[in-house]
C-alpha cells in the first residue's frame, strides 16, 4: 500500500489516512486497533470491495487498486461467514471451483485435499445446520482457500466462536497459513490473537498506522506513548514529569532516574506493570514513587496491585505480595526497564 487514503461522506469521515505498508510473501500480517480505527476499510481496499480515495495498491508489481475483486485472486473470510444453507459442506467448499469451470475429477481431488487439511473429511456430506460452529468456520476457511488465492484476507473470523474454540482455531489457522505459505492479512481488535498469530502487527489508530513490528518488538519497544498505552494487559504505566540531568521530577516529591537525558523538558517515563515492585517498607533505592494501595487482585498466575499515585492509577504485577488496600507503599523499578518518551510522546530511549 502506497500512501493509501479512504474518505467517506464527501471527505467528512477519514477512514484511512496515508497508509504505507509492505506485506512480505507468505507473511501473516495483522491489523490491530480499537473499534472504528479503519482496519476493515483497509482490508476491503486490498480485497477490492472499496476503492481508495488516494494512493496505490500493488500485488507484487501489479497495480490492483483499479481492478475488480474477481481479478485480484484474493479470498476473504468475514466474521459472519455465510455458508449456503441448502448445500452440503462438500458443495459449499466445491462451489468456487464450479464457478471457475474446473472439471469434476479435479474438483473432487481438491475438495478431499482441502477437507483433510481442515479436518472436516467426516462432515463433507452434512448440511451446515448439522455441524458445530467450529466446523462451520473450518468449512468457510476451506471454501476460501480451495481456489489457492494469492492473498488470504480475514476480518475477525474467530469472534463468533466461544473462548475454547477460538483458542483451538487460532493455532489451527496459524498452522494452515504456514503450511500453505499464503500471504495473509488478518483484522482483529484482540491483542492476544494478534500477538499469538501475527508475524508482524500493524497497530492502527484513527485511520493511521502507528507502528509495524513483530509481536516481541511491539511489546518491548513501543515507539509512542499511544502504542505503549494500547499494548499489554494492563498496559504500560506512564509517568509525566520534567526531565533534567538524568532524572525526571514528577509533581510532588517523586523523582525518577532515567537512562538518557533528552533535550525536551516535558517527558513521560513508561514502566511495564511486571517490571515494577511494590513494598510496604522503605525501599533500598534512594528514590521511590509513593502511593496508596487501591486494590489487590490475586489472579492465579500473578497478583495485580492497583496503586493510587496522586490521583493516577498505577498497575503492578507481582508473583506474590503482602501489601493490602489503603496501605501506604513505595513503587520502584530498575532504570533499565524504563522507557523515556519526549513531550510529543515519541520514544527517546
Ligand atoms: P471495527 O473494529 O469496529 O469493525 P474498524 O477498525 O474495522 O472498526 P472501519 O470499519 O474500517 O473500522 O471504519 C473506519 C471509519 O470509517 C469509521 O469511522 C466508520 O464509521 C467509517 N466508515 C466505514 N465504512 C463506511 C461507509 N461505507 N460509509 C461511511 N463511513 C464509513
TrEMBL record:
What this protein catalyses is: D-xylose(out) + ATP + H2O = D-xylose(in) + ADP + phosphate + H(+); L-arabinose(out) + ATP + H2O = L-arabinose(in) + ADP + phosphate + H(+)
- The UniProt record lists the ABC transporter domain at 1-231
The answer, when asked if Protease is one of the entry's keywords, is no
Query: What keywords is this UniProt entry annotated with?
Result: ATP-binding, Cell membrane, Membrane, Nucleotide-binding, Translocase, Transport
**GO: which molecular function terms?**
ATP binding; transmembrane transporter activity
Task: Enumerate the SUPFAM superfamilies for this protein.
Answer: MOP-like, P-loop containing nucleoside triphosphate hydrolases
Q: What is its EC number?
A: 7.5.2.13
Q: Which GO terms describe its cellular component?
A: plasma membrane; transmembrane transporter complex
Q: Where is the signal peptide?
A: none
Q: How does it assemble?
A: The complex is composed of two ATP-binding proteins (XacJ and XacK), two transmembrane proteins (XacH and XacI) and a solute-binding protein (XacG).
Name of the protein this chain belongs to? ABC-type D-xylose/L-arabinose transporter
Q: Which organism is it from?
A: Halorubrum trueperi
What broad taxonomic lineage does this protein's source fall under? Archaea, Methanobacteriati, Methanobacteriota, Stenosarchaea group, Halobacteria
Amino acid at each position: 500500500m502506497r500512501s493509501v487514503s479512504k474518505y467517506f461522506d464527501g471527505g467528512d469521515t477519514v477512514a484511512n489516512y496515508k497508509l504505507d505498508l509492505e506485506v512480505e510473501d507468505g507473511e501473516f500480517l495483522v491489523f490491530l486497533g480499537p473499534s472504528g480505527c479503519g482496519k476493515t476499510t483497509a482490508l476491503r481496499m486490498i480485497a477490492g470491495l472499496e476503492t481508495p480515495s488516494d494512493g496505490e495498491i500493488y500485488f507484487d508489481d501489479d497495480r490492483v487498486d483499479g481492478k475488480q475483486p474477481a481479478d485480484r485472486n484474493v479470498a476473504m473470510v468475514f466474521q459472519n461467514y455465510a455458508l449456503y444453507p441448502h448445500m452440503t459442506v462438500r458443495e459449499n467448499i466445491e462451489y468456487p471451483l464450479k464457478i471457475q469451470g474446473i472439471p469434476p475429477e479435479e474438483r473432487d481431488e481438491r475438495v478431499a485435499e482441502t477437507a483433510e487439511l481442515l479436518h472436516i473429511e467426516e462432515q463433507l456430506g452434512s448440511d451446515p445446520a448439522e455441524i458445530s460452529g467450529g466446523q462451520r468456520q473450518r468449512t468457510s476457511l476451506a471454501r476460501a482457500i480451495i481456489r489457492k488465492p494469492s492473498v488470504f484476507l480475514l476480518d475477525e473470523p474467530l469472534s463468533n466462536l466461544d473462548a475454547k474454540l477460538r483458542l483451538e482455531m487460532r493455532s489451527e489457522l496459524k498452522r494452515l497459513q504456514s503450511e500453505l505459505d499464503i500471504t495473509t492479512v488478518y483484522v482483529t481488535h484482540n491483542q492476544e490473537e494478534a500477538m499469538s498469530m501475527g508475524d508482524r502487527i500493524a497497530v492502527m489508530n484513527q485511520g493511521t498506522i502507528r507502528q509495524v513490528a513483530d509481536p516481541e518488538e511491539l511489546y518491548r519497544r513501543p515507539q509512542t506513548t499511544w502504542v505503549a498505552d494500547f499494548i499489554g494487559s494492563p498496559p504500560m504505566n506512564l509517568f509525566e514529569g520534567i526531565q533534567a540531568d538524568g532524572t525526571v521530577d514528577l509533581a510532588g516529591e517523586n523523582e525518577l532516574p532515567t537512562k538518557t537525558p533528552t533535550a525536551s523538558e516535558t517527558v513521560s517515563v513508561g514502566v511495564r506493570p511486571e517490571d515494577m515492585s511494590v513494598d510496604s517498607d522503605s525501599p533500598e533505592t534512594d528514590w521511590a514513587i509513593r502511593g496508596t494501595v487501591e486494590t489487590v487482585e490475586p489472579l492465579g498466575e500473578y497478583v495485580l496491585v492497583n496503586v493510587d499515585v496522586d490521583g493516577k492509577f498505577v498497575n503492578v504485577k507481582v508473583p506474590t505480595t503482602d501489601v493490602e488496600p489503603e496501605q501506604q507503599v513505595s513503587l520502584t523499578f530498575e532504570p533499565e526497564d524504563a522507557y523515556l518518551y519526549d513531550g510529543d510522546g515519541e520514544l527517546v530511549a
